[in-house]
Amino acid sequence: xxxxxxxxxxxxxxxxxxxxxxxxxxxxxxxxxxxxxxxxxxxxxxxxxxxxxxxxxxxxxxxxxxxxxxxxxxxxxxxxxxxxxxxxxxxxxxxxxxxxxxxxxxxxxxxxxxxxxxxxxxxxxxxxxxxxxxxxxxxxxxxxxxxxxxxxx
Length: 153
Known about the structure:
Elements: E1 12-15, E2 28-29, E3 33-36, E4 42-47, E5 58-64, E6 67-73, H1 79-89, E7 96-102, E8 111-126, E9 135-142, E10 147-151
Antiparallel strand pairs: 1-2, 1-7, 3-6, 4-5, 6-9, 7-8, 8-9, 8-10
């Protein structure tokens, strides 16, 4: 039941290029993702209290969309994982287009799409334990706003 919450089953992560217009960019899915960290804006609190005040006064700072952790099972031949890895090695300051799609999370079962620009600051392989799969861990630093779009299936 949708009123109990939204399942994360079917969520997909995509990486694009550095194209200025994400709507016309070519995206490739980063397959076998198991972890997508929290995303959304968070603002710092600015203390505006003066000595003559008897209570605290606060202002809202500039929203920051922060960093998003990505991780999953490493597939060395996956074009999406390899594009993310290549982006992490890119020392240019131009961000990449990234996308997260959440199926059926919108009104009337529509999909939700989150588009944003980010610098890929980390991509690491992790061998882990015996009887385990090799994993990958990535971090993307969101620059600018995250745009939410309702996509009708």
